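Bug #77: duplicate submission created two jobs. Keeping one. Sequence:
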Amino acid sequence: MQSTWLDYARRLQAIAQSGLAYSPNQYDLERYETVCEIAAQMMAAISAAPVAPIRVLFAGQSGYATPKVDVRGALFRDERILLVREREDGGWTLPGGWADVGESPADATVREVREESGYRARAVKLLALYDRNRHGHPPIPFHAYKLFFQCELLGGTPAPSSETTAVDWFAADALPALSTSRVTAAQIHRFFEHYRNPGWPTDFD
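Kept job's structure:
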């Protein structure tokens, strides 16, 4: 039930954001501001967090509301997958992050792999395009899509970054504690299957 109400709050915020961006009517703008405040109050109540930071978070969003895009790279070597340990929560994940404006999804993935792991790579296949809400991740304030690319290792050496504290390779049956906000064990196991079955089509939704 909590996830349902969080989805309602996200959708209300998105409606308010788009309305504030495009409505020419002053009275409608006031209504959209009220809807945005309701969404913030709902999200605060659901998460037991103060409402003020949520208001600030919402105020930083403008224009037509669309899902955010998270990109991740899956690199394999000797039946092991490359993972990095996140400084933020101590969990391990596929290297990646939010895509930047002006980058293609593949270019963003390659950049994130290099920045977070020290390895140079080339994106060779889109393994999956997932709606984050449908894959068991902990909730976040905004709707997001997750793009997972299989990448070919080109070179480099392991090097943690400002966002990661360790870099290592793991077998499918020996995964460490994961940063489930970023990747789940089910997703990693699915990508091992893709690696072993290169003719499989891209997963979606």
